[in-house]
Amino acid sequence: MRIMKVVCAPGRTGFYFDDQKAIKQGAVTDGFFYVGEPVTEGFQAIRQAGESISLMLILENGQVAWGDCAAVQYSGAGGRDPLFLAEDFIPVIMREIAPKLEGRVVDSFRETMNEFENMKDSEGKRLHTAIRYGLSQAILDCVAKTKGKLMCEVIAEEYGTTVSDQMIPIFSQTGDMRHDNADKMILKHVQVLPHALINNLEKLGPNGDTLAEYVAWLRDRVLNYRQDPTYHPVFHIDVYGTIGELFGYRNIDAIADYLERLEEAARPFALRIEGPIDAGSRELQIEWLAKLTKRVDERGINVALVADEWCNTGEDVRDFVDAGAGHMIQIKTPDLGSLHKTAEAVLYCKEKGAGAYMGGTCNETNRSAEVCIHVAMAMQPAQVLAKPGMGVDEGIMIVYNEMQRILALRGVKQ
């Protein structure tokens, strides 16, 4: 199908851009605002409205293929690309990408995005990850419309996989409303919960007591309020490196002792801890997360460690997996750029026996979330993130409904 015109529209995301460095340094909240000055380049405030760009391709038959360019909540942190603002990057898309697409026939998702993933702009720089992310959604949609297939079927065809015939487990985020929002998840029988946003030492508590108490509360909440006795979710807590900050990221025995305490608090539910340490650089993160993973295994502690910080690109995913740095890897879809890199990252994790968590950010859009679900159904990761937003219900609705639509449509075809 020939692309006739590229059109861009500025958009809002489902959450906000937050200056993670300022928050880790103790920025306090006043209602939903953070008080103080930002410290990460590009931020005008510690929290500011999330922005996106809808990248639309008008096809020769009048159809429109489209995707949303979006970046993660904590842009500019942990080795990520800088803040993504629509007014800065719409001109880049129109100047650098539109001339390469208009008048072009696109019939392969993977080949087309390999080209743009490696493209350098007129200044010799790679395109922002958010642009590659949104463009890949639009190109995937274009190929699907050209071939009369679902987007998941295009991915499966190009990578030689099989589209899942069942739901992928959904992981939902509470944000700071970690009690009320956990209740919503329990009511909806979410398979993996609650994230909990433990992003500073105050939330972890002295000696980690606050988090341990919360895990015990969550355990009791599920046991007391689940409507089906077979409902047995996995507890997945993101601690943003605060455990390593509390005990020292090199003090792996003290960290392991604390993880054992959390395991006991969660029992009988399985527990995952995302980002237990932040060693401050990619190399140190791989080294010390691998050592911690090995120590947890040696001691038989039933806590799965999830790699997050400093694991941003497809190359990062491979290096973390090869080093044994974490039992599961969060594949942060916007950070990898084009969605074909996400597909390849999921495949690599599965081939090497690592858990593949196809995540992303609360700061995406409904469109990027829906397209991600098509990649997930074709690649079958261990879990997918309910996104965007921190309201629980909206993100669950978007990803759950898209999976159900895929299953229903493919059921009719078969």
Explain the overall architecture.
The chain has about 425 residues and is α/β, with parallel strands linked by helices. Strand 10, helix 12 and strand 11 (about 330) form a beta-alpha-beta unit. Strands 6-13-12-11-10-9-8-7 form an 8-stranded parallel β-sheet. A 3-stranded antiparallel β-sheet has the order 1-4-5. The chain has a two-stranded antiparallel sheet with strand order 2-3. The protein has 2 domains: about 5-160, Enolase-like, domain 1; about 170-414, Enolase-like C-terminal domain (TIM Barrel, Alpha-Beta Barrel). The chain has 15 helices and 13 strands.
Task: Tell me the layout of helices and strands.
Elements (H helix, E strand, L loop, with lengths): L2 E16 L1 H5 L3 E3 L2 E3 L11 E13 L4 E6 L16 H16 L7 H9 L11 H19 L3 H9 L10 E2 L8 H8 L4 E4 L5 H4 L4 H17 L8 E5 L3 H6 L4 H15 L4 E4 L7 H17 L4 E5 L6 H10 L4 E4 L7 H14 L2 E4 L7 H14 L3 E3 L7 H21 L1
Parallel strand pairs: 6-13, 7-8, 8-9, 9-10, 10-11, 11-12, 12-13
Antiparallel strand pairs: 1-4, 2-3, 4-5
Helix pairs in contact: 3-4, 4-5, 5-14, 6-8, 8-10, 10-11, 11-12, 12-13, 13-14, 14-15
Structure keywords:
single chain; 414 residues; alpha/beta; Enolase-like, domain 1; TIM Barrel; 2 domains; eight-stranded parallel beta sheet; 44% helix; 17% strand; globular
